[in-house]
Amino acid sequence: MKKVVIGILAHVDAGKTTLSEGLLYLTGAVRKLGRVDHKDAFLDTNTIERERGITIFSKQAVLFLVDDFEVTLLDTPGHVDFSAEMERTLQVLDYAILVISGTDGVQGHTLTLWQLLRQHRIPTFLFINKMDLPGADRAALLADLQNQLSEGCIDFSASPEEIAESIAMTDEFLLEQYLGGQMPDDAQIQSCIASRAVFPCYFGAALSLTGVQELLDGLTRFTQPKHYPDAFGARVFKISRDEQGARLTHLKITGGNLPVRSLVSGATQNESWQEKVHQIRIYSGMRFQTTDCADAGTVCAVTGLTQTYPGQSLGADTTDCAAMLEPILNYRILPPAGCDNHTLLSKLRLIEEEDPLLRVLWNEQLDEIHIQLMGQVQLEVLTRLMEERFSLAVTFDHGNIVYKETIQNPVIGIGHFEPLRHYAEVHLLIEPAPRGSGITLGTDCPTDVLDPAHQRLILTHLAEKTHCGVLTGAPLTDVKITVLAGRAHVKHTEGGDFRQATYRAVRQGLMQADSLLLEPWYAFTLRVPQNMVGRAMTDIQRMSGTFEPPVIQGEFASLAGEAPAAAMRSYAAEVTAYTNGRGQLSCTVVGYRACHNADTIISESGYDPERDIQNPPDSVFCAHGAGYTVKWDAVPVHAHVDAGHSLAPQKEPEITPQRAAVWSGSSGLDAELEEIFVRTYGPIKNRGLDAFHQSQKRTAAPAIDTISRVKPDDYLLVDGYNIIFAWNELKILAADNLDTARSALIHLLSNYQGVKRCRLILVFDAYRVKDNPGSIEKVHGIHVVYTKTAETADMYIEKASFDLSRAHRVKVATSDALEQAIILGHGAERISANDLYWEVQQVNQQIQDFLKSSQ
């Protein structure tokens, strides 16, 4: 029998569970078509899921496409707070169906899902849902999918000839075959899909079952079962408990078979275990059937295993999968009256076992329980679970962000532990590592310096502990730690001595390092009415975020960018309030970046690394039969071992102070204006925000060398009407029709920008237009800004030059003398209308010469 495991993934509210219901209904797995809004969906089995209308826990259903084709369907959560539930399900998928809303298109979380699917190499079908709603444009959606996801996204509801041509374009062999008149067959299409060269796209509306049968037909034709080895192997992807409290290990058999009562072995924290399988269950919704033996390719739940965990491999399967996502919020639990912390902790451990993104932390020193999770919805679900399963009404404090720390320069840390009749010394090289890499361990210690067994012991102690930074005590990350040297005593070294020396070596190294505080950042997509986009841009700047230029979509404008999670925690409610419910904010964690307000966070934490008795940086030496403490900064002088490794002093790069503007061929008037400004207001300073982040994508430009005041990657701000009425040709056009003059200027500057490869922003006054919200459009590679009511082009250009000049070279094209003086004070360079006219004419001539030479 052909067996395939297919998972359904989507951004929240894209209609994923509705599609699952349609697939089950059309294949006869269910007799009644359930609905999320009616709270009777077959796979929404939990009370909380039905109340909220979202999927929280992954569910399994079994359906048959044809008699000998069994599909195990795994419905995963779409809400970002439960991404871990989705992520661990990816480990067992053969194929995936990515559901995208036809009215929303590709969202931030959609891109995260696509990245995960790519990293797990999972062949993917796409179902574009809600195509029956206004605003769903098939052609525009397909182009967006090909642009943002992959050029291999092909509309499989098109004609066979169009499908064949699109598939042939993805493979040279198929293209030659197609040009010879031979169409790709099903086996070749299956191979293209399996290798992720082709992604079939189906358009429809799951609620009315439109397009669902076509998707089922595509799955039947274009999927192929995996080939499994004969030796037993399995992969765990979920832990849960049934209504009687029995522990269930959900796994997929990846080789051989698993009979009931067979022994399964594994390892947990370097300890081996062996347990017997009591029962094998094949779930479909809430119901299950027991079986005596599970064959390869089967997804099942087994009882009797107590030491398994999500991501674990059993038997011959050796592909342990570490989670990519991490919790970013921290809360302190306030236990209910009559419940002690130890009882509460034991209950929380049971739920932690089931949810990889729930971290339960016990602070023994403060006698407090803290939890780390992804967001507010997950917190509310945890509260309900504690009440329903254990009758405990827990509450939480306001919570804060999970910060992390790293270092910016390599250091050598030394730890020595030598109280009376104990001895160990460890030397570690601690280096910065790429962002997101976590902590990596290695050894470069000769075996004649330190026994290999002791080296392995040091590595074990490095891995067993969450090491704290020295700024706020936050967890250490993104470093590489290498064992350089060490020493043991034949008689006095005990088992725990190297643990103490290792911990102290890490802390001693961190005390020397230039540490950096990190905070989680969100990638966001914000959709607001056009007249409120200015408010949104101001808010993002205030939150130290960055964003791309707004994209106008009818009455709405969309902003995409990144911002600190701490600043955006409550912004969704704020968006709902100031847009009267019309705005929409979607956030996805993109990783850790440098903290935007590190000084404030460090000061508020009040952390003193030298007073942290759990993580001491000092070492213990022995003299005259007694141990004594040596401060961390004096340890290298007292160390007994030469590490054989020294850090060469790093030569500081010579940094020449430089303004954002670089003068090239400036006129005498520029120097005179600068002298007047400095004499009146003082030295010119570079200040401002860099929130107006520009996409780096550019079209190819003719490779023509040119001498110009505008260099590649410069920002060029152009006062539109000032230029129109300064250039005779445009002035004549404007006298007849101002729109024609504007279009002509845009055309001229788009050619100019294409050759110069600068970042050109053309600004037009619209301040006299009543109730005008202003707009930003991208036309032929340049950004065209129409200012809002009561805002002149001068005002916009002055603010933009102020904001951009800190980190960019900025030029402003205008003949307004007052504006020239102001932007000069911002560190920008002025270009007169005549200078710009000359440069544009030169570019046009160069383009013509280039075209002639290419003929």
General description of the model:
By secondary structure, the chain is an alpha+beta fold. It is built from 25 helices and 40 strands. The strands form nine sheets. It has a seven-stranded mixed sheet, with helices on both faces. It has a six-stranded antiparallel sheet with strand order 14-13-16-9-8-17, with helices on one face. Residues 650-667 and 686-706 have low confidence and may be disordered.
Query: What distance separates the N and C termini?
Result: 62 Å
Fraction of helical residues: 25-40%
Rg, Cα atoms, Å = 32 Å
- Give the averaged pLDDT, no decimals: 84
Number of distinct beta strands: 40
Number of helices: 25
- Main sheet strand line-up: 2-3-1-4-5-7-6
Shape: globular
For the biggest sheet, the summary is: 7 strands, mixed
Residue ranges: pLDDT <50 for 5 or more in a row?
650-667, 686-706
SS-based structural class? alpha+beta
Share of β-strand residues: 25-35%
